[in-house]
Predict the structure.
Amino acid sequence: MEKSQIARQGEDKVLMELRGISKRFGGVVALSQVQLVIYPGEVISLVGDNGAGKSTLIKIIAGAYQPDEGEIRFEGHRVRLRTPRVAKTLGIETVYQDLALVDTLDVAGNIFLGREPTRLRLGPGLHILDKCRMEQDAEAILHRLGIRFASVRNKVEQLSGGQRQAVAVGRAIFSEPKLVVLDEPTAALAVREVEHVLELIRSLRAEGIAVIFISHTLQEVFAVTDRIIVLRKGKTVGNLSTKETSIDEVVKLMVGQERSLVADNRAG
Ligand SMILES: Nc1ncnc2c1ncn2[C@@H]1O[C@H](COP(=O)(O)OP(=O)(O)O)[C@@H](O)[C@H]1O
Ligand SMILES: [Mg+2]
């Protein structure tokens, strides 16, 4: 799929747009006049040093925080993401770093958590779980993502970090979202498992689902994204086509003139 974002700056194709988003926490300006545009089926990354505002921006997109200023548009309409439920209803699913899986449930149970299909309705609150259908549907979702588990009846506590990530993404795509936000999905993973998560992101893109991917590892960002948004001290300082930029350029934008200072802080 050939995509030139520069050629697609028209309003009609935009999935989501954030204009002039600002957010303060007391005296701290976490975000200042942030601009962000995401197109359908596009994989973008938000990068920036610690404290740059990535998590705050994601929480605004997820409906968990309200911006102090600015405008959010989704599929051409101005929206107010008052709660995470409102964001989900529009088609925005967020997978946070802690994943919020239930260890004692199996894979299928986690994918369907809170919305299990029922076979019989015996009255209010008296539903009999359709285990069989749940397992088939869970398998179908994982198959779509190119994932194979020995069994969807495995408890998630037995799974590796990458497999747990896959279950969380499986749960996120159950509702056929238009945008999936992944907050540092590779942070706690073994190198071998990182590639699986990157493959997962490519599967989402192949289905036309847009992805916002957060990672501290620029090699991963370059391996999987179409576009990179750089935040520094709460401001958008870069909006780059991945094909047309380099790790060096992104790092320079991330740290600004304080490169050595930031490196020193990290070492300490
Ligand atoms: N809930 C909060 N209360 C107070 N300050 C916060 C809160 N969340 C974030 N901040 C501050 O906002 C800035 C941006 O933080 P954050 O969005 O977590 O950055 P990042 O995810 O890029 O590391 C930081 O200065 C941080 O300390
Ligand atoms: Mg963060």
About this structure: The domain at 6-267 is CATH 3.40.50.300 (Rossmann fold). The pocket of magnesium ion (ligand 2) is lined by residues 54-55 (CB under 6 Å). The two ends are 44 Å apart (CA to CA). The chain is about 35% helix and 25% strand.
